[in-house]
Amino acid sequence: MERTGKQAKTADGGCPPWVLRGYAVLADGERGALVDPEGRVVWLCAPRWHSDAVFSALIGGGGHFGIQPEDPWHVWGGYYEDGTLIHVSRWLTADAVIECRDALAMPASTDRLVLLRRMRVERGEARFALTLDPRPGFGADRVSNPRLEGELWTAKAGDLHMRLTGAPTAAWDPGPGLSGRFRLREGEQHDVVLELSSGDGGPAPDPHRLWARTEEAWRQAVPDCSGLAAPRDARHAYAVLRGLTSSAGGMVAAATTSLPERANSGRSYDYRFAWLRDQCYAGLAVAAHGPHELLDTAVRFTAERMLADGEGLHPAYTVDGGPVPQERRLPLTGYPGGSDRIGNKAGRQFQLDVFGEALQLFAAAAHHGVLTPEAERAAAVALDAVERNWTRPDAGLWELDDRWWTQSRLSVVCGLRRLAAALPGGPTARRCAATAEVILAETRRRCLRPDGRWRRAPDDDGPEAALLTPLARGCLPADDPSNALTRRFIEEQLAEDGYLYRFVPSDAPLGEAEGAFLLCGFTMALATDHLGDRASALRWFERSRAACGPTGLFAEEYDVRQRQLRGNLPQAFVHALLLECAVRLNDASTLPL
Fold first, then answer.
1. Is 393:376 a contact under the CB 8 Å cutoff?
2. Mean pLDDT of the chain
3. pLDDT tens digit string along 335-346?
4. By the number of CB atoms within 10 A of the CB, which of 115, 141, 258, 360 ranks highest?
């Protein structure tokens, strides 16, 4: 547990920020919420991931929903219940041990969210304070027409209908919103339920029934991971991926927007969208474990987008397959060091490696016998797109300037070879194999140095951690000399204290321009294992999985020197690679699917 500091309220009456490792995330597939160590929900978009925020105190807007101990002299802690995104905040005072159990109710609906909060006193006696201050439109609007009907509070929150049960003695003030107090004795508990919906709602919710359904939904959603390396973390990673995946199929890259990757650098982005590459990573990680639900979901969403857009495939979509909005700024103060933005310009880039990752995903589905006819047609569309576009410069894995990135070509080669092996004997397999040989030969000619090491691009000899991804996936045989030479060079040039950076920045030393990329640390573990060094692979795995906060959540980057998370939270592809490492590093085989 950590002692709270004396923190002032922000100027608009919101909540003070915490370092990112202190936040917990609640998610039900259709939206996500962040809860700070003091029990305040400070981020929630409704009704969908990419909707405007109702609670945006996290990024300097207005709005939060707090349930916290009244006694200011306390320390905080908490945990996730195993295999779920049900989070329990836990506080220790001089006289009591108290908890607040939080979850977004499941199964979820796209037009109605239900936030469950259950207060409980484990020892002693305690008072809780409740504050509810919805601010629709990223804090620009106020709730209208609040009224108490029996024991049910109702109001309008922008275009949404709001209902709150469990606080009939609370009082509404036009300024700070709803506030109330609860006194519980040892062993007692009390439920509060918040609903935000597009319609009027219906009967008052039954918290006991909602909790039971939510617990059962998580039991059904998350498979047993007891046979894997780091089974608790692997199961938690799967729960995170499930919580970020919509019933429409798309998986958001993260639950938040505008959490800075580097302070005051302008590198603050909106990750509340579905990047196809990230979802393929998640599907491949799940496939390494077994033909679980998230593999089917990833295949379905990727195939739908491939069939709809063909070679015009976008790197990112909304979770229901819509276009990503143009990037624009919000007039908010932002999380410290950040600048608030919504929308993302990456949705309009050309990224060749996405086709390669999609082909690998379809091959993994075929390996498990779950490649649908639609996905097989999508694989043919991807093959056509690759044949017509593989020489075209692209933005690559890191979404940089359009160049002839080596990693993009090798990822495509890997995907083509995997699909040829998964669908042997037919014309598609022959085309895949032939195209892979043509692309690999030209990529070798342009991008392989005379000493046998891969370049970043034909005009760039620098180290590039993105190259580890196709190496880890078995693009080339393990005994190909370029594998070991490239991996060693990346480690020598980009590693610091067991963590790995993406590439050498042009304007600052490692660690100053950006944090270590946790995705790269996990792919280094997989690449090292592919080369037969299990002991070194495990060291990379253990070091990378240590870069989380008390909640076990990972951001995109890790500040090695300050031991802090950087960027949006939780980063889906980091959790996906942790899961894949947990599978492969506990398996006698080092060969990927």
1. no
2. 94
3. 999 888 999 988
4. 360
Which residues make Cβ contacts (< 8 Å) with residue 542, sequence separation at least 6? none
pLDDT grade for 11, boundaries at 50, 70 and 90? very low
The dihedral formed by the CA atoms of 30, 36, 39 and 41, expressed in degrees to the nearest 10: -40
The tokens for 491 are 């480690």
- Asked if 78 contacts 88 with a C-beta cutoff of 8 angstroms, the reply is yes
Residues in the chain: 593
CB-facing half-sphere around the CA of 491: CA atoms within 13 A: 16
Count Cβ neighbours within 10 Å for each residue of 181-208 and write b for 16 or more, e otherwise: ebebeeeeebbbbbbbbeeeeeeebebe
Sign for the CA dihedral angle at 229, 232, 235, 236 comes to: negative
Average pLDDT for residues 169-189, to the nearest whole number? 94
Residue 286 tokens read as 């799940």
- Structure tokens that stand for 365 in this block: 């589905």
Instruction: Give me the mean pLDDT over the 227-238 stretch.
Output: 97
How far apart are alpha carbons 421 and 465 in whole angstroms? 27
CA distance 218 to 105: 10
In the block, tokens 């207060």 appear at 119
Q: What is the pLDDT of residues 21-59, one digit of tens each?
A: 999 999 999 999 999 999 999 999 999 999 999 999 999
Q: To which residue do tokens 């593989």 refer?
A: 390
- Tokens read off for 589: 């085989």
